[in-house]
């Protein structure tokens, strides 16, 4: 692959990263409580992108493109997972508010944040279809398709990680700066609601 191709693909990844999606709101949700939880979710999302890149490289993701039913199943599962994350986060926030405690992601469970980010991205078939549609345009005809696809996947993962980590740090510092329980609670509930709405929207659109 040539340097101009790599730079062009990197620019495309930056543009896509700047478009708010489920991963952005998921990272925001965890970052509102603890910056390391948000960064962990960012890393999980990046790992999920690498998994999709590997699936495309080895031809597994092509099944989603060829089978509308497989695409619909993955999309529904992803929607249900987002709905679960949103509802559980909202209920946790309400319980904490009732008990007078700070709504929070358990401090000892940073790995759960990473897992949530990874699963959310892996259950988003649009990521796989993005690689299927875009990767071939940047891979030379006589090049090693598997190696080049994984290289593109690594670039996309690094761009996503950098952007989401920045979002995480900014969100966490904003909460520290405000440090008002009522504001924090509202922001947490809004982000949880957005996750739930995205999940419902995903499920509804998959039935069309």
How do you describe this structure in short?
The chain has about 210 residues and is mainly α. The protein has helices spanning about 5-15, 20-30, 35-55, 60-65, 70-100, 110-120, 125-140, 145-180, 180-205.
Order of helices and strands: HHHHHHHHH
Computed Rg: 18 Å
Q: Using DSSP, what is the number of strands?
A: 0
Largest sheet: none
Strand content: under 5%
Bin the helical content: over 70%
Distance between the termini: 39 Å
Unreliable spans are 99-108
So how many helices?
9
Global structural class: mainly alpha
Name the overall outline: globular
Q: Can you tell me the number of structural domains?
A: 1
Mean pLDDT: 77
3D architecture notes:
By secondary structure, the chain is mainly α. The chain has one domain (3-206). The chain is 83% helix and 0% strand. Helix 2 packs antiparallel against helix 3 and helix 3 packs across helix 7. The longest helix has 34 residues, at 145-178. The N and C termini lie far apart (39 Å). Residues 99-108 have low confidence and may be disordered.
Give the tags.
globular; 9 helices; LysE family translocator; 208 residues; mainly alpha; 83% helix; transmembrane helix
Write the layout of secondary structure elements.
Blueprint: H1 3-17, H2 22-31, H3 35-57, H4 62-66, H5 68-99, H6 110-122, H7 125-138, H8 145-178, H9 181-206
């Amino acid at each position: 692959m040539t340097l101009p191709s790599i730079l062009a693909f990197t620019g495309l990844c930056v543009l896509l990263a700047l478009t708010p999606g489920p991963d952005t709101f998921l990272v925001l949700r965890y970052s509102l409580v603890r910056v390391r939880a948000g960064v962990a979710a960012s890393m999980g999302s990046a790992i999920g992108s690498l998994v999709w890149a590997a699936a495309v490289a080895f031809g597994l993701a092509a099944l989603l493109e060829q089978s509308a039913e497989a695409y619909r199943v993955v999309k529904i599962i992803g929607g249900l997972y987002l709905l679960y994350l949103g509802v559980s986060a909202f209920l946790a926030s309400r319980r904490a508010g009732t008990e007078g405690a700070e709504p929070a992601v358990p401090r000892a469970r940073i790995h759960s944040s990473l897992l949530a980010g990874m699963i959310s991205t892996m259950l988003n078939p649009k990521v796989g279809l993005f690689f299927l549609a875009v990767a071939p345009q940047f891979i030379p005809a006589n090049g090693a398709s598997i190696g080049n696809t994984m290289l593109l996947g690594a670039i996309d993962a690094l761009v996503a990680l950098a952007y989401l980590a920045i979002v995480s740090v900014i969100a966490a510092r904003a909460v520290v700066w405000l440090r008002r329980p009522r504001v924090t609670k509202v922001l947490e509930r809004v982000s949880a609601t957005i996750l739930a709405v995205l999940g419902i929207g995903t499920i509804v659109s998959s039935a069309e």
